[in-house]
Each structure stands twice: as structure tokens, then as C-alpha cells.
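Team,

Forwarding the record for the chain on the shared tracking sheet. I've put the sequence and predicted structure together so nobody has to dig through attachments.
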Amino acid sequence: MRLTQNDADNTARQLKARPLPQNHPVADSLVELFGEHTFFVDADGLFIVESAERERDGGAELGRVVKLANWVDGHRTVLSPHRREGADIVVTLDDAAWISPPAPSRDDRLRLHPRDSAVLSCPAMT
């Protein structure tokens, strides 16, 4: 699912991850591999958020984290896609649940590995 900018910022803060900008050079390739989503990168790899049930009594909208790729090297420069792994992590999407300012975004320069379209490559994460 494609998140609004506010929902992506909220998710990034909760997970300490960076959303990949929609205009990023590798975004189209990720959409081809995984479908229309807001993609996130963190120290563990690449993941998305899928819709989950709302909290009871008209509460906040929730999203479930799904991992799509792992880092394959210690420098975190290459991602290897795998079967979707549903994490036991649920995030609050509604921006009303957050009052802190958005986390600064950073261009990871993520790109497809030239030898294998199923492997994604980007600079080391700090």
C-alpha cells in the first residue's frame, strides 16, 4: 500500500527506518518486483507496511510490517529479495497519534545490481 507522506513519516519514526522516495531511481524496479507500496530501508533490510485493522472505537489506523529483502553483506550494500515475511510489528499510521516533527529523509542511492535484477545494491547505511 502506498502511504501518505504523513503516514510514511509516522512509520519511519516508529521503526527508525527511512522511506524510499517515490522518485528514487530504483522505485520503478521495486514496484515491478513487489507492487505499489511505500518502501522502507533500515539496518535489517527492505520492507513495506500493509493495512491492518483499525483500533476499536474509531481508534487509529494500523499497519502491519512486511519484510521483502535482507542485506547480504556486512556493509549493507546489497539487498537480496525473498518471500514476504510478515513481522509481528504493527505501526500506527494516523498522524494524529504523533506530534513530533518528521524525521529528515535521506537519499540512499539504492539501485539494482547490474549483474542480477533480483539483487538490489546501495551504499552502506550508517
